[in-house]
Each structure stands twice: as structure tokens, then as C-alpha cells.
């Protein structure tokens, strides 16, 4: 990957890492291959791409990095445990890089979206649509508008309220139980 990126003849001004792999179902039933793939796609790839692409941004003293995370990464999420754990990594990575790279002229942001109407979500969702589900175009618009304004964006008013409640008002145990009600229908 390193050599492929270094041979590019274009300057990348904005990295948006939006790939994800989400093994859905009980952890005990998740294969080791799916766990390894989840880590490779959701942790290793954004970490290494950010490292490689930020080098030229630092030299130019400008650029932007957006890492797509998830509200699932804010607390334990039954039936999505590997996905949620890896997405929490992206939140912490972006928050640290936001402070570290800001003096270098680079804006870093993580988008902690709720459910997004993507083909993967539509395929996984067996029950009614989750509260706060958004169109992908609205998530993208709100995320890009937030670039340069802080390390984290939670798109959508309902999702902002839900995130505040899950992370600030309720106990972790209660937050996990609420999340379980939202992810329990996934398989």
C-alpha cells in the first residue's frame, strides 16, 4: 500500500475513510476471519492511510482527514461488537490527530453517524428502521460542513440527542441495554 500511494502523481487534499466491515450477529458465532477482516478494514487501513496521506499534507501545511465512525462506537453494541469496538478506535484516533495536526494546517474530523440508508444497512435491518436513520447524502453534507469546527460530528438532531443521552446522562449499563434494543434485530 505504501508504495502504491507514494507513486500517485496527485496531491491528496482530503482523505475521507468511509470503508467498513461489520460482522453482524452474536460474537460467539463470528468467525476469526471476520474478526480479522473487521480489524483490517476498520482499524489498520484508516490508521495506515492516515499516516501515509498526512505526510504530504504536513509538508504542504494544509489538508483534511475525515474518518467515518459510528454511534455504535460510543458504547458496547450487542450483535455488532467487533464493528463497535473498531469504530471506537477511529473516534479516539481522530480526536488525538485533530489536536496534533491542527498546528500543521490539517483539519481532522470523525463522523459518528447513526444508521445510514446504505445498501448494507438495508440488507442487515430485519425490523423497522432505527430512529434517526439518515440518507447518506445528508450525513455527507453535515460532515463536510463540520470540517474545521472540531474533532467530532454527530449528524442529525435526533442522533445528537441520543448520543448525549447514551454518553452523558445514562449509565454505561443502561446505554448498552438501549443499544441492544436497537441492534438486537440484526443478524
Question: Mind explaining what this structure looks like?
Answer:
The structure is a single chain. By secondary structure, this protein is an alpha/beta fold. It has a single domain, classed as Rossmann fold, CATH 3.40.50.720. Helix content is 52%, strand content 12%. The protein has 7 helices and 6 strands. A 4-stranded parallel sheet has the order 1-2-3-6. A two-stranded parallel ribbon has the order 4-5. The model has no long low-confidence stretch (mean pLDDT 91).
**CATH fold-level topology:** Rossmann fold
Shape: globular
Strand share of the residues?
A: 5-15%
Into which percent range does the helicity of residues fall?
40-55%
SSE order? HEHEHEEHEHEHH
Mean pLDDT metric = 91
Strand line-up of the largest beta sheet: 1-2-3-6
- State the distance separating the first and last CA atoms: 33 Å
Overall number of domains: 1
Helix-and-strand structural type: alpha/beta
Features:
single chain; 187 residues; alpha/beta; Rossmann fold; four-stranded parallel sheet; two-stranded parallel ribbon; 6 strands; 52% helix
Concise summary:
The protein has 7 helices and 6 strands; from the N terminus they run H-E-H-E-H-E-E-H-E-H-E-H-H. The protein is an alpha/beta fold and 187 residues long. The model has no long low-confidence stretch (mean pLDDT 91).
